[in-house]
């Protein structure tokens, strides 16, 4: 983080501010249960050192620290020289290796097998598979280097054709071939049901469930540690001031309320990071501390409703059309509508008001309608899109009534008659 | 064709006199006596009720001993049956049980069999001849065997313990307590019952001729040996009988197949029994194998040029019942004529030839030579003794001898040409030598194994598997135990000796004697049928594993390999680690317990095809983790070994796996590559294979093709499967296809008719393991490592058996339990073993679903959303709602809970998070508020999880 040494006790505030960040110390962020960490560490250690093949799944909701757990364990494991020397790692991600062909090439590349030239893997899919299997088969427990396969987004690999890759990896891990450890990372609790039974049978059924049972006090503590500057911060006085400021911030009632709301919404560390980053970005030389107001503002941003925000940018005509649709939805109980129906509804409103202010041509209204579709505030009902004329294409409103009403409240200089029309029970 | 010269005796069985009585219920006639006459010989033998008889078993050298209780036949007169009281030979008593005897058993000793597991009804046509049985007092010493064919009874044996004979028992004199009989002075080593327990050194010493040995061999001692040999046979019955029921079916089909290749029969059968201990009961053998054996015997007697040799071979056996059997008399003179020409040394050598001998010889020599030898036999009496000399030993290790001798045949052909007659002798003598040599050392090696096995047995007895274990089952395990290294060395030695054996006649004779002596030294013959017949072979099973199953690694420009590590992998340190290593699915078990039946079926199927040079398909099904592939691999290992020692013609084993190829058509490519090393495209490979299997080629080896995960070879036109099953039906293909899949009805479900029809009906299904079997599997894997408490093992196996019967699962759980045990805080009261609590924890980890915990750990809004989902479901009466509907409920709930109302984005985020964990099932998220929501957990679970808050 800092290139400066501790000698420079006093830095310009600007320097300090640029160095303020979220504490990246891994272990302080997550509090993994020792048993789980030990389980994984021992498992990988046995592969690395004893040459025992294993397979394990790490399951937990997003942001629960699955990858972090693995990283921590690997960090610990690689402190052992013996393990470090021998362990080969292959990292795959289900989002990148979308089929077995790509995955195989990637494995071969990462293992630097002999059919790799530079970064290119030669041979057909079948050859690659044969080559890799042969390579693994030739190895044996005591003499080959153990290979650690890390399959991120494991569930996506289960959707590959025939689950060939998984079958073969698990098969190797259950037979006397080169020692491998297969670590799958997934957020799907039902991941085992995705596996074909022969694949499932080969999997060792070790699952590490990472579920955060974080209490609110722990959550607060986490916020505090995340914002605090580490001891090694170059300017110790600034750090002292900053840390005190963070402490008072966390004690603030309104801040606590905001954090409580976030806590209620999600215990995910990433969403917390988002919130804190928004706060930190408001820190400046002029204001070298986080104020409760910053947090409130950040929270408001975080909870802002995307669709309602979009409504703020619409023209009055488009807003009127949305209101017409809302009324149609009320009348017809969510049945889809088309442009003509919306137009009629809008016309009824205009007649009542007999106000020429909203007197638009038919093509203009159609254009506005299409714009709404582009914004995905309305979407065509599936299937009927191709044949029918645009005016008669059935549509659905993608907004909740609460969002519309909220947007109307905040819409700058909204005409009162439009507002009233929106509030009225019947168009 | 080398089998044609096999000798057979044809016996004719007739009732003597009118039926004594008629049983109306069973429609049977009871007779007083049975007349046996041998084709071509005027002499007849009469069997009366109450007489002791020899009954054909699978080892002709050691027929079973029994006493006739009554004789009866059915109305048609076709069925002739006898009810008998069985006796057990020493060799039939499990070795471990022999210790109970507390003394060295007399080689000619037999035991009254009082076990219940033996069918006492035998087919009369399996009766060989009467034998003399003497009842002795327990204390009385065994008479110095004046008559080698007399057997002695002192005790009874009920498969568990030796008891004194009750006076009520059919035995005349109840023997008093056993004084351990010092037998060392009784040199007769049972050359017959291959001395499984015999000390090895003899083999080593073989090359040096020892005068003492020769002298001893020259004197009469040898008789005892012969007698034991025959005695050894009976014991077999005992052990086998225990598995009567289980074996029946298997042996039936296998014996039918076996008969096709009669010449092979003895070897084949032995091997089978060997490898799958439960293969056949005595009853089976009587019922099923009788046919082939009878034919054998009949041929023996009927082929005129052989009669002379027959006399040799038959005499010793006959002697037992000599006094009564006219035929025996007739034969004896002949033998004597020969004996006259024989040197003293030679005469001393026990002759135990029986119907098997010639065949064994024939096997070992090339066919023409076999013929010649036979032709010469009558004239070349001077030479005969030598052969005799050789014969018993060959018998002793019957099939083993065959095996061992074969290599020598191969090395010798050049030598034979100059003077066939002489050299043939050499050849013959070589074989016994080899066999003896091969047998002896191994037995000694096995001692440690026996120790281990006895321990295993103790453990297993706890499992109430007593039966299985008492019988040959555990013996097999014993024999698998020897480490590869030992086996390796022993086989090396064998080779050395083979070479040495070729060197000179005299030396060989001496050697043979030596080895026999060695056998005599430890005259505890192992009690198994295995022992008598094929003990030498059993351990072989393990070394096979060294031999990779036939697939040559094709060198390519790039060698596929994982870099090797700089530091060697660490060895397991403590008991738990050791146990864990053993429990790993990948560790190759010494044997495959609980799959003996299947093993035998597959084995006999493949072997018969290989021997016949025909082709065929077999379909094997079973849920994952039931040992299908492992069993087939085990079979192939054994067959490969059999091929290596020239027991069966060489073959080629290829394995493909539907899962290990990218496309069904790749199957052709892989097969071709494994067969020839060629690389080709799928189409080209298919064409080449078509040509290969479609056309005749000289000296083509049988190809055994294992197709794992067959269902993945399915294509729309099914041409891959069609070809795979069509090739074996071609005349010259010599292709055996073993297919494995999970589903039993795969042929019916996915195959079109022409494919299913070619697959045929040879099917086998592997049942999921029962809890007992699982327990046994773990036990056998753990071997002697004591790492688990009994109850813990029971719990695991019961749990897994109830869920899936998947052995992999079972082993994985055990492995996990050892880890938990290792890391659990040291409990002062704990035994250090894996206990119930550890196993429970492992089970929970593996079997419990995390849904409920996941719900409890979810954030408040997520929990509220789940609640809203349920509320909306209740309102709608449907199990599905759109997000918009649920959201309304969600906001309402927020109000109730006194929370700030959530925005749509917030609600959607919560919903998506739940969807990512699959607590909810969602439509694609682009539908926004319109997406439909379903629960992936039961409503009750959700409510339960939320209630505790």
TrEMBL record, chain A:
Main location: nucleus
UniProt GO MF annotations: ATP binding; DNA replication origin binding
GO cellular component assignments: cytoplasm; nuclear origin of replication recognition complex
Domain (AAA+ ATPase): residue spans on this chain: 52-213
Keywords for this protein: ATP-binding, DNA replication, DNA-binding, Nucleotide-binding, Nucleus
Subcellular location: Nucleus
Purpose of the protein: Component of the origin recognition complex (ORC) that binds origins of replication.
Protein name per UniProt: Origin recognition complex subunit 4
Origin species: Scophthalmus maximus
UniProtKB/TrEMBL annotation, chain B:
Cleavable signal peptide: none
Start and end residues of each BAH domain: 45-168
Organism: Scophthalmus maximus (Turbot)
One Pfam family named in its UniProt record: BAH
Coiled coil: none
Sequence similarity: Belongs to the ORC1 family.
Extent of Basic residues compositional bias: 327-338
Function, in words: Component of the origin recognition complex (ORC) that binds origins of replication. DNA-binding is ATP-dependent, however specific DNA sequences that define origins of replication have not been identified so far. ORC is required to assemble the pre-replication complex necessary to initiate DNA replication.
Comp. bias regions, Pro residues: 172-198
Classification via InterPro entries: AAA+_ATPase (IPR003593), AAA_lid_10 (IPR041083), ATPase_AAA_core (IPR003959), BAH_dom (IPR001025), BAH_sf (IPR043151), Cdc6_C (IPR015163), ORC1/CDC6 (IPR050311), P-loop_NTPase (IPR027417)
Biased composition (Basic and acidic residues): 353-364
Composition skew (Low complexity), residue ranges: 339-349
GO cellular component terms attached to this protein's record: nuclear origin of replication recognition complex
SUPFAM superfamilies (alphabetical): P-loop containing nucleoside triphosphate hydrolases
Name of the molecule in the record: Origin recognition complex subunit 1
Compositionally biased spans, kind Polar residues: 401-413
Compartments, as annotated in UniProt: Nucleus
Listed GO biological process terms: DNA replication initiation; mitotic DNA replication checkpoint signaling
Subunit structure: ORC is composed of six subunits.
Annotated keywords: ATP-binding, DNA replication, DNA-binding, Magnesium, Metal-binding, Nucleotide-binding, Nucleus, Phosphoprotein
GO molecular function, one term: chromatin binding
Region Disordered, annotated ranges: 166-210, 317-451, 470-571
Start-end of Acidic residues biased regions: 491-509
